[in-house]
Recover the amino acids of this structure.
């Protein structure tokens, strides 16, 4: 690794090129407007809305309140994305939160972001969603697949990860094509659920239960929880399903006409996903009884069994396509963050290189794959949602504060796009609430794990980055791997 500037003062707002990369060797700008919409929506729509969206209802206690939470989660995602759009215009670099924190708050906070993101965040998300893909990909072929050994699911998940690594290695255009197809399939599947619920309501099925459920859905807020911790957990659950709203910021250097397409992609994708989520939850509430909702491990499958009849097998297929597309999008964006961090000296230099012919970040893709495959072995993600949500909103809050900091520091800086100041202020307050409320109301052991993990990040930073305590064989290994993989350093393309 190379020593990164401690505070990045001399780099300006957008930063300067790192290293002496090969002239003209950059990532291709192959993501147009609709591919950007597809990437954002595709990363947001995963398996959760099909499998277990009842977590919000469980924590809030009533259907009406749960729908409000879903809508507010979509609003928060939209406000956060608008803030990120201004940051992306000011700092047009790949890497998302990492790049913005690095250029404003310096090396150490940025390293902690990349430390949690690369070692836990993205690989764990890839692995968890890949395991969901394995479950639903096998379901049509093995109706009793719940009795299959876990090693079968893990092998299919590993195959999914390796296949997507090859797709992303081969070409960024091929990866975006896969994303476009999968996103179209996801949106169509959700529209089927929405229309199916409307048809059930119009036909008045369930012997009059539909009317009772409709009245319950629209009118009851009784027994809604008043506990700040439970409300915070409900938002954690809801916002987890919106995770991915910031995906396009990770690939800014590959976005065509970013000054125009960034904002428009967000304005199209996030309201679309929010509307679908709310309508799908209404459909679930109209078709399924409260006991069925609370006991179901696969909500869309239970819905399909009642509405689609002999065509219910389409639901597992839709979930498999949805999860495959989500893993692809996470892979695409996650490897770019790893690549951007290596370019700044926060990861091994090899990870900052791209294939000389295919212009894809091959080493970063391989590293992300290796960590994800390692996490497939234990395959236990029972507590990781809250763990990742806490770290995510801690990072989001810090990133939003970058925007407020830039408003004060660079008042006269020309801005192509600017959000009203009250929007980042609201997002910062929301981030503080989501980080502090569950901690104060119901402290859990996971918080100790987070503290210890971040503490280890301080130790690694000072040893490896600040004092450069690195094995001498690293440079030799980098040279040999560079020749073997046919990769070379790059320059930034603003």
């Amino acid at each position: 690794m190379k020593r990164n500037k401690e505070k990045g003062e001399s780099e300006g707002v957008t930063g300067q090129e790192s290293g002496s990369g090969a002239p003209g060797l950059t990532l291709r700008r192959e993501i147009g407007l609709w591919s950007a919409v597809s990437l954002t929506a595709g990363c947001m729509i995963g398996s959760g809305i099909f499998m277990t969206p009842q977590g919000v209802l469980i924590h809030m206690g009533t259907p009406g309140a749960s729908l409000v939470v879903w809508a507010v989660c979509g609003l928060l995602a939209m406000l956060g994305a608008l803030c990120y759009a201004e940051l992306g215009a000011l700092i047009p670099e790949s890497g998302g939160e990492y790049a913005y924190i690095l250029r404003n708050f310096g090396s150490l906070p940025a390293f902690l972001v990349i430390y949690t993101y690369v070692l836990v965040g993205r690989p764990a998300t890839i692995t968890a969603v890949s395991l969901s893909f394995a479950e639903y990909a096998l379901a049509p072929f093995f109706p009793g697949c719940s009795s299959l050994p876990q090693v079968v699911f893990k092998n299919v998940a590993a195959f999914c990860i390796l296949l997507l690594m090859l797709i992303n290695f081969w070409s960024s255009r091929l990866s975006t094509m896969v994303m476009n197809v999968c996103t179209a399939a996801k949106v169509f599947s959700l529209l089927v659920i929405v229309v199916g619920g409307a048809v059930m309501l119009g036909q008045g099925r369930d012997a009059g239960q539909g009317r009772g459920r409709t009245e319950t859905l629209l009118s009851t807020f009784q027994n809604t929880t008043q506990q700040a911790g439970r409300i915070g957990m409900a938002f954690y659950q809801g916002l987890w399903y919106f995770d991915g709203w910031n995906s396009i910021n990770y690939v800014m250097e590959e976005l065509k006409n970013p000054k125009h397409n960034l904002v428009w992609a967000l304005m199209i994708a996030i309201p679309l996903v929010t509307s679908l989520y709310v309508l799908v939850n209404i459909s679930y509430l109209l078709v399924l009884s409260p006991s069925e909702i609370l006991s179901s491990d696969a909500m869309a499958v239970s819905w399909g069994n009642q509405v689609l009849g002999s065509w219910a097998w389409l639901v597992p297929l839709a979930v498999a396509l949805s999860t495959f597309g989500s893993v692809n999008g996470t892979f695409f964006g996650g490897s770019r963050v790893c690549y951007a961090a290596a370019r700044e000296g926060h990861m091994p230099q090899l990870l900052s290189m791209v294939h000389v012919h295919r212009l894809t970040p091959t080493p970063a893709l391989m590293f992300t794959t290796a960590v994800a495959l390692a996490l497939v072995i234990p395959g236990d993600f029972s507590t990781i949602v809250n763990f990742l949500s806490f770290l995510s909103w801690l990072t989001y809050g810090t990133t939003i504060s970058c925007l407020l900091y830039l408003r004060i520091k660079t008042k006269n800086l020309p801005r192509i796009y600017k959000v009203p100041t009250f929007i980042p202020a609201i997002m910062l307050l929301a981030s503080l609430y989501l980080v502090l409320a569950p901690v104060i109301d119901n402290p859990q052991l996971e918080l100790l794990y987070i503290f210890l993990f971040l503490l280890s990040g301080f130790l690694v930073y000072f040893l490896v980055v600040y004092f450069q305590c690195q094995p001498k064989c690293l440079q030799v290994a980098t040279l040999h791997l560079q020749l073997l993989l046919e990769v070379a350093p790059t320059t930034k393309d603003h």
